[in-house]
User: Fold this.
Amino acid sequence: MRIREYTGADWDQVRPILDEVIEAGDTFPYDPAWPAEVRHDVWVERPPGRTVVAEVDGRILGTAKMGPNRPGPGSHVATASYLVAGAARGRGVGRALVEHTLDWARRQGYAAMQFNAVVETNPAVELYRRLGFSVVGTVPEAFSHPTRGRVGLHVMHRFL
Assistant:
């Protein structure tokens, strides 16, 4: 698997992954009513942020976006988000993307990484814990899960 910088030509493979996750409605607080151009603008980061893809033999299996969590006085903390195609889950794609973003953030001089809204029922919570993140707070019932009802959103953090 190779992780590389996203290019505009990748959108045709990234969009179905993003659409799949948004339509499932169980891990991202993204609006299913968003048109394609809004989805693109929300996912593809502008500098100083960055978007990457994970591919095998030219097939994109996942993508990540990363950058500063907040501007100005909060810009020393990074954030990132990850999408993995349903058919590629459980094969190490997510882990590779998280490790890539952590390495990138360290090289850029960030002090920590923070995830602002991780759905507490998302299986990725355990991966994040194994990679050194901890839950520093949970907003109760802040996410309307399609089958579990209202569940919490974790704020997760780790120092770099």
